[in-house]
Design a protein that fits this description.
The chain is built from five helices and 46 strands. With 555 residues, it is mostly beta strands. It has four domains: 177 residues, Distorted Sandwich (Glucose Permease (Domain IIA)); 158 residues, no CATH class; 112 residues, Chondroitinase Ac, Chain A, domain 3, CATH 2.60.220.30; 81 residues, Immunoglobulins (Immunoglobulin-like), CATH 2.60.40. The strands form nine sheets. Strands 15, 16, 17, 18, 19, 20, 22, 23, 24, 25 and 26 form an eleven-stranded mixed sheet that branches. Strands 1, 4, 6, 7, 8, 10, 11, 13, 14 and 21 form a ten-stranded antiparallel sheet that branches. Strands 28-29-33-37-36 form a five-stranded antiparallel sheet, with no helix packed on it. The protein starts with a helix and ends with a strand.
Amino acid sequence: MRFLILLSIFICYNAAGAYSASRDKEFSLPFNFPILLSGNFAELRSNHFHGGIDFKTQGVINKPIHAPADGYISHATVTPGGYGNAIYVTHYNGYTTVYGHLESFTADIAAKIKERQYSEETFATDLSFGQDEYPVRRGDIIAMSGNTGYSFGPHLHFEIRETESGELVNPLLFYKEHVKDTKAPKAFALSLHPRPGKGCVDGKSGKKVCKIADNTTKETISAWGEVGFGIKALDYMDNTSNNYGVYCIELRADGKLLYSSKMDRVAPVENRLINAWVDYEAYYRRGEWFMRSHLTGNNPLRLLSTDDNRGWLVIDEERTYNIEYTLSDIHGNTSKYRFAVKGKRCDIPSVDSKGAQYFRWDTDNELRDLGMRLKIPKGELFDDAILDVRRTEKPDALSDRYNLGGVTYPLWRGCEIAIQLKNTPAENSEKLYIRRVTSGGGYGIGGTVKEGWIKAPISSLGTYEAALDTVPPTVKEQKSNGGTLSFYIADSETGIKSYKGYIDGEFKLFKFSSKNVRLTCNLRAEGVSRGSHHLRLVVTDRAGNETIIERTFKN
């Protein structure tokens, strides 16, 4: 049944892709210069798929962006990270286009945003517009490209979303004829994954990685039982040195299709399922992306399709099994990689969970260690997990420290942890929080205190403890020039919550960039006249600690 469902979804995806491709004239290009991409759709990123494509803007900002179809501007956002300045255009053809990292908006929208920023005394803002407020026609200039938000070079992040469902659709289904691409994807390494308790590779239960050269591997591989495969690969395009994600991957064993993936669309709720698809341990430990061609216990990612054994190859004969990967891009450029796996009988070791906590992905799990409670609901783990949970006693601290021992077991939407407080402070209880402890120190994830316990939602397993934040944010003034006030602001514990600047007692807009942690005020743009003025800057962290800067300055 699972196979039939996946097969029907795969067929529907193919049909949807063909349908979209046949309608590509509904969208014209957002730029009037030759198109090059620095990123393609559904590339692998930390905890998410890249939701669109990145248009290069010839190394500069302020390139005019044109509406690709009739519609109306329905949304505008300003954030210190993420997309930075962004707009959303809802079109009459059933799609919404999104434009991120903008330098500036149209004058009317910029005025509306500034009005909201001043009325709410905030830099980050989010505005929605009605169908009749800002209509656009194909070709109208709707914004100027930039480098705002979490962008590290001028470009336009561009998305196409299905308006009704909100699902992200591959823009190259509409624009592929505008992108020159004669280069096929390239693979660099193969991975083999014995199924725990059911398979082995080279007589062992551990993963094996083989380098690829000349479309194969020189290593001899033997296996027995159920084995999954993975591949490390990238795609390339003409006239650029960038690399990209692979559009389509197929895996066959002795000519039979075991697995395929096709990057046509993805829903926002599926983003963290990327951690179920890839070899998460390889990414976490070494930053390597291996795309697995088999499904773990819980992996409802719809862009993947498998046979009725979920992509696992059953090796139960002492013979040679011929394995073939086919990688292709959206333009049809294709490369093939062939390997031989020799079936060799061996004793398959059972799963050993002695001395550890064994959590199943398909049930609710709860752990009650001394002074700590952890609840992982059914479906939050992507596979069964063996957690070596350890408690470090800290008599003089707010709580003991708990290592959940599962950093390579990612979670989907998250779970809750509760830690018992041993030394609750009589004052400043509102400044308590749970800290995720890392090799670099750690960071705060918040927390709610009740009846001697503090609890918080967590998105990953790791090491946690209770902490107290009484240290105000760091604020350092930078050298100002050209009528601009500039400050470096940071908080090493709970993080920055808000920042407000007042000049001569009146709120003035200070813009914050999370990529360089700079807070700046363009005095001329904010209507500050020449002469001497008084500045009051208030920076607050999430525990309520404040740093206040007051001084006189000349503009």
